[in-house]
Amino acid sequence: MSRRRIATILFNLAVIGSAWSPSGTGPALARQQEGAEDPQRMTGTVAEVDVEARRVRVVTGVGHATRAMAFHAGTGCRITCAGTDLALEDVTRGAIAIVHYHKTPGGYEAVGMEVRFPQPEGGEP
Amino acid sequence: MTRLPGVLVAALGHATLLLATGCPKPVAPGDPIAGLTREQRERFDRGRVAFETSFVPETGLGPLFNADSCGECHEQPVAGGPGDERELHVAAFDPGTGFCDPLVDRGGPVIQQAVTPALKAALGIDREPLPDGAAIAERSSPDVLGFGLLDSVPESTILSLADPDDRNGDGISGRPNRFFDGRVGRFGRKALVPTLREFNEGAFPIEQGVTTPGVPTEESIGGRAVPAGVDPVPEPEIDGEVVDLVDAFVRMSAPPAPDRLTSRAQRGRKLFSRVACDACHVPTLRTGDSPIEALENKSVTAYTDLLLHDMGPELADICLGLALPSEFRTEPLMGLRLSDSFMHDGRAKTVEEAILLHGGEASRSRAAFDRLSEADRRAVLEFLASL
After folding, report:
1. What is the ipTM metric for this complex?
2. Which domains does chain A have, with CATH numbers?
3. For chain A, which terminal residue's Cβ has fewer other Cβ atoms within 10 angstroms, N or C?
4. pLDDT band at residue A124 under the 50/70/90 scheme
5. Cβ contacts (< 8 Å) between A63 and chain B: which residues?
């Protein structure tokens, strides 16, 4: 059984924290990007992973106003799925990620990433 | 003594009858929901003004936009009703992985059809360029009346209607879409957007090019940044109060009351159910808790399950979130009589044409409708025309 599969099962067994709970207010990009807390946090869908450059592009937005944020996930960035450590190459397009990051002069530096892999809810594929 | 005009006499008589029988006044398109407090009613009225206010470049319009006000597209016969505008959405679907790319870095998923004079002068374009190779979808402007009630339907209700693996074997397998962060969606033709607030706030930047506190960045121009000097207003271009007011107007707009059913329309309603249109167009949903008491624990005759259904390859266009190109959210039928074109892209000019365009999971119901006698089909259509 692959690490990713184990991590997925662990995630599904885990008690889902408040970060995953439906919220009545939803995300606000301003709050996510310019909030006072440091590191900041955003949640979205992974659209692209460049393992070599250690870059991850995550899509989020407000309603149909969709925005993408690109993060550098250096070797110090801890990536987990339901508490299990993952490698960057285990993160795939379509995964949902909560990214903890700092804004730096060079861009967004991810310091932690919690990912989950949505389970199919019917339909193809 | 001056004689009153006949119409006035009839209206007075009707009003007297309503008072005498205690019947509530029928909800007209554009009315607020019943039971608002005076303060809520005041915000509804102010919200309608904000909804109809036109932006210009000096107040935030553009540099890319589809319309200069909410009311430009949601307008018939009242603010919040449907409109005849069409817009373009794009995405790229990878069948191998099932991943849907909304093409954010190439200007997607909404491609704006107009530009400000300053952007035209800078780039020489009349609209946002379409990304090469993208799947393209047309979208009509729906009415938004009654959306506050849809927003108040508990997520658990939506999930309880889902049957993704068609375990009951009825050929219908609705499933929820999910937003990019995993929350259940319900608004938009692909049910991507989880809440009405986000649906409304997100419309400012994508439709009018007006940035808000929640979306303080402009749309890119086919993925390129806005050239310097073409956007004179600092971000965000409107404050939260404008968003709140528009949200209040949409949230507290009542769905138009269905017309009183004739006996033929009553028969049509039964036939609508007999041919199983109501398997997806679920007649009523119940709202749950709401900060607005008038929206709380109400039945909403919406004729939708807010779920995605496969509508077949003929209608397939773009993916969005988890929605496949052929999957669309069941369109609410409340207020249907206000529209003069139908389906997600307005391709059908009549309701009958729209029914006959249904494919995929709806094929069985479409065929059953088609097998009805002419008189029975007319009855179904008369029922639908009452909504």
Report:
1. 0.91
2. 3-116 (2.40.50.320)
3. N
4. very low
5. 187-188, 193, 198-203, 206
